[in-house]
Design a protein that fits this description.
This protein is mainly α and about 500 residues long. It folds into three domains: about 100 residues, Fumarase C, Chain B, domain 1 (Orthogonal Bundle); about 210 residues, Fumarase/aspartase (Central domain) (Fumarase C, Chain A, domain 2); about 70 residues, Ribonucleotide Reductase Protein R1, domain 1 (Orthogonal Bundle), CATH 1.10.40. It is about 60% helix and about 5% strand. It contains 18 helices and four strands. The strands form two sheets. The protein has a two-stranded antiparallel ribbon. A hairpin with a 2-residue loop joins strand 1 and strand 2. Helix 11 packs antiparallel against helix 12. The radius of gyration is 31 Å and the shape is elongated. The structure holds arginine (ARG). Arginine binds next to helix 6.
Amino acid sequence: MAPLPPSNLPPMAGTGAATPWGGRFHEAPAEKIRRFTESVSFDRRLAEHDIRGSLAHARMLSATGFITRQEFAQIEEGLGKIAARVREGSFTWREDLEDVHMNIEAALTEITPAGAKLHTARSRNDQVATTVRLWLKDEIRSQQAAMRKLQAALVQAAEANTAAPMPGYTHLQRAQPVLLAHHLLAYVEMLDRDHRRLEDAHARTNVCPLGCGALAGSTLPLDREATARELGFVDSRGRPRVAANSMDAVSDRDFIAEFLAAAAICAVHLSRLAEDLILWASAEFAFVRLADAHTTGSSLMPQKKNPDVPELVRGKSGRVVGNLVALLVTLKGLPMTYNRDLQEDKQRLFDTADTLRDCLDLMADVMAAAQFDTRAMRRAAADPSLLATDIADDLVRRGVPFREAHRLVGTAVRVAQDSGRDIGDLSPDEWLAISPELAGAADLLRSGARRRLGARATAGSPNPGLARKEIARWRRILNRASGQDGDA
Ligand code: ARG
């Protein structure tokens, strides 16, 4: 007897009916395999972007004649309903349908038979790559906005303390006087590089894989440029950017790795800022008081006020770095092209995005509420040894070779320390005894950190006048950025 056409075959128990790929299978996956392989529990947050991708694909199928206008209208309406259910939380997610893509397609096909045509010339491989890119493009913009918000909080704190001197440290030893504003603006610069790194990552995320199919494109004449354009995968002149190689397109996760790398660098910056605040909040420094809301007490020691928020920001940088490493290791041995390993990209991506945004957001709050004790900083900055280099510079001005100047001031430090003093305690005669060129050293030390900061003329140095200019420059940049956010 001739075999029956497949459409008349009864489905095997628990197979074809349940999974879109069930046609060639005799058995449904075992329950624990389903649980092991599913991703819908975490990739459902891609729903909105997946629907956007499907809509563009359907519109293109309709324009190229693979579905009728009426079928497109039904698909559009169905996807709209699904989007609304997802937003309201009334959409039923099914683990047996594996992932967000198959859940949405199955729901659409329940709403309209036209749903069965949506996957024409599309694979989940180009679909998931498109969806994640769409999601990440939006995510990068929101991370950049969070970076700007933290920069604004830092600039605000710098502006409120423009002229406050503090000791600058190398090796965590007092080195030379700086300004608190200058110290805070250092973090504004770091965050600016983070922002630019994300801008670069955005440019490489902005390429459309849709139409690349499973790995080898399609025999059907798709209009890839139309879908790319509709989805906003365009360059600055509005020209569509479509992935040039179908095999690369479905297996490339560089764009995620780049985001995770940029995020890891940013998290390391936040960790360093957190560490500065933790140190400064200690009784030994007492340079800052953190708001009660950003600290917690001890269950045992009644006097304690612990800087938990900065500590957790410092701690969470570890997992953000770990997410980058985890993804790179996942990618490292993969043969071309799509492999299911790639499904492991999403939790790393989401975890980094959520963690980084929380850290940026909370550090902005911490900075906005922190009270700097500029008197304590000024007292610490009054340490005369911070001006040892200034005395050496002064000798250079008088024609003493720098190495000789360094040695002479070093001698003064030793003479002072040998008698349990510091260079601020040396009399003019004692300076003169070391070298006649040092006649003015005692006066220079008396002029104090604030005046000496004013003497720092080099671009990029902690001079109050330069700090004011830098604050104004950053204000302009941040105002422009918030104007652009407002327009968008
Ligand atoms: N959930 C999958 C992922 O995240 C979607 C792609 C699955 N493709 C496949 N051929 N199994 O990577």
